[in-house]
Write the structure tokens for this entry.
Amino acid sequence: MRAILVDDEPAARRGLARLIEAAGLDLVGQAATVPEAARLIEETRPDAAFLDIEIGGATSFDLLAALARPPKVIFVTAHSDHALRAFDFQVVDFLLKPLDPARFAVAVQRLERTLKAEAAIQQHRPAARPQPRSVQVSNGRETRMVDCRRILCLEAERDYTRLYLEDEAPLLANALIGRLEEMLPKPMFRRISRSLILNTERIERIETPDRNSALVHLAGLASPIAIGRAGRSALRQFLLGPVR
């Protein structure tokens, strides 16, 4: 099992690395910042990530929200007040510092069971279906089929999703953004944050006014879309590939 760890404290990284290796896991990399972690995950494709939550002015929540397919996560933190939000990301376990080796071993066992269960499901999963050309969208009053090529981007609004369409007013769909994401063709559509999906074939240019944000200009959309640091990092990796 391949794993990475992310923590901005060198001493904490050393201690956690010893526990990971003692558990028989293959530690393939370490990171001290969210951008480093994003690059590391893109390059190594680990099965699991051991993440501190507060990392150099950012959080692991920013990191996970920007990843289309995050690895399995075990949070390792000194801040118990993050526990409820952590489980919104379907983490495998939540460990508090200082780490107890016995409790750490339980978390690793839980991780192994989770990965084995998912592998078994994958073996019995039917072959992938052809990519859809249109999606069915309902606004509560009517249901229609929308050509995927006309969708510029999708933005979550609580339990709804706003679709920005070519030559048409935005459409508020009565569906969660995650549900619509499952219906959209890949890699045309890329989720770069928890609340935003872009049609990557519509990207004309990207402005970077500073290191923590970007403005994405889409063909057919009058105003650019503002994204934060994590979204900018995810989009850059998708367009340019991992940094070597």
Q: What stands out?
A: The mean pLDDT is 89.
